[in-house]
Amino acid sequence: MKAKRRWLYFVLILLNIPLGLATRWAPQYFPSLIRIYGGDVFSATCIFFGFRFLYPLKSLPKVSLISFLVCIAIEVQQLYQAEWAVKLRNTPLGILLGHGFLWSDCVCYAVGTVIAAALAFLLERLLHWDI
Predict the structure, then answer these.
(1) Residues 57-76: tens digit of each pLDDT
(2) pLDDT bucket at 89, cuts 50 / 70 / 90
(3) ∠ Cα 106 9 41 (to 5°)
(4) Any transmembrane segments, and where (predicted)?
(5) Which of 57, 70, 55, 59 is nearest to 113 (CA)?
(6) CA distance 66 to 68
(7) Residue boundaries of the structural domains of the chain
(8) Residue 96 — pLDDT band, cuts 50, 70, 90?
């Protein structure tokens, strides 16, 4: 079952990444709500799927909490404005680190985590895997 779960979350990550990037790179194709907040929601879902991939047997509440806390840690680190940190954020890695703290991003991370956890719960139930 562990391998089956990993495959499921690997596929979900592969589906999630292009959607999240599309909200940033081709925003004209999305409604304004998704254009503004979708990237952060997709980031949170991707982090959740990544942790579920790495820890397929941990409980969904634990994976949800860990992934949400990682999202918040990424957001809070944006408050640190040392020159080297700003330079790092201006590299391609910067898409993972972000630019500037926003409370609305924290809400998006909560929404994304809840969506991912609900999807995980439903898929695992549908596939008759013990949760």
Answers:
(1) 999 999 999 999 999 998 99
(2) confident
(3) 20
(4) 7-26, 32-51, 63-80, 100-123
(5) 70
(6) 5
(7) 2-126
(8) confident
